[in-house]
Amino acid sequence: MDELIHLVYRLRWPRPRRGGELRIARGDGERFETVWRASREDFSSPSIERCAILRDGRTWRLYISYVDGVDGRWRIDVIEAGSPDSFDPAARRLALDADMANAVAVKDPWVRRVGDRWWMFVSYGERPPGDERKLHGSGDALSTGAVKSETGLATSADGLRWKWEGKVFAAAAKGWDKATARLTTAFRSGDEWIGLYDGASDISDNYEERCGLARSKDLRAWERIGSGPAIGAAGGPGTVRYVESVVVGDSVRFFFERTRADGSHELCTSSTPLSEWDRDSPG
Predict the structure, then answer these.
(1) 131 lies in the same domain as 184
(2) How far, in whole angstroms, is CA 29 from its chain's centroid?
(3) One domain for residues 21 and 129
(4) In the chain, N or C: fewer CB atoms in 10 Å?
(5) Digit-coded pLDDT (tens) for 12-36
(6) Pairing of strands 52-56, 74-81
């Protein structure tokens, strides 16, 4: 294989059973083999969510999004290893938690190194006034409908110690993404970044969020592209969410979660020329 891609994903069972197993697979973009796996019990957690894997020189890092089994709040830990098949859950350390962001939850990290800084975009909910403990009874404060799920940013010089920067992509005032605006990936196209995000109008769209597009010059200020969902069906079968992108040569490969006709979710991939995303391109 000329271009190896490492993919981290989780397995989830029908409700009320939640995200139970985390896996890392290695492949050429379309064909993969599993090289590592861990269970939610390895993290003493009732649920694992979207995670991120990156390499920094000879060191590999795995950022794990999971529910803390002690207080029921989402948090993000990091594990370092010499290879993607040797991560030890017992060696994890805190990267970002709700208190660091003055939030009720931080989850679903999208992590990139840009220049001399590390950037971590997360789905988070602002801390409401009053007693927030009632939000954590279900182990998922962002699925209660009591707070919005929006996108926040943390930055780091080393990828281990993070500084919370605050909100960078807010839910809309009205419309299809007024309850959720969860940036899940971004890639360079010309002199700007193209971002894909999950949106929802209310809690009934939870688990079936739809995918929208946004653009940014600096990864901090984002502008929506269009006035509605851009990719996938409008809920139910065909719904696309949790998109990740990898630029390989002149193409961008996407990995995404799609809802099947039977209601289950599958992991899919597609690839398009990078030039198709250049708004100055004649195509």
Answers:
(1) no
(2) 19
(3) yes
(4) C
(5) 887 767 889 999 999 999 999 999 9
(6) unpaired
Question: Amino acid letter at 212?
Answer: G
Q: Mark which of 145, 170, 195 sits at the end of a domain.
A: 170
Phi, psi (deg, nearest 5) at residue 205: -85, 0
Residue bearing tokens 């290695």: 26
pTM: 0.94
Which residue reads 């193209």 in tokens? 194
The tokens of 170 are what?
Answer: 């807010």
Distance of alpha carbon 62 from alpha carbon 71, whole angstroms: 22
Report the C-alpha gap between 257 and 153 in whole angstroms: 23
Residue 114, classed as helix, strand or coil, is strand
Q: Which two tokens stand for residue 239?
A: 């719904």
Contacts of 35 (CB under 8 A, 6+ apart): 24, 25, 26, 84, 85
Give per-residue pLDDT as tens, 75-134.
999 999 999 999 999 999 999 999 999 999 999 999 999 989 999 999 999 998 876 777
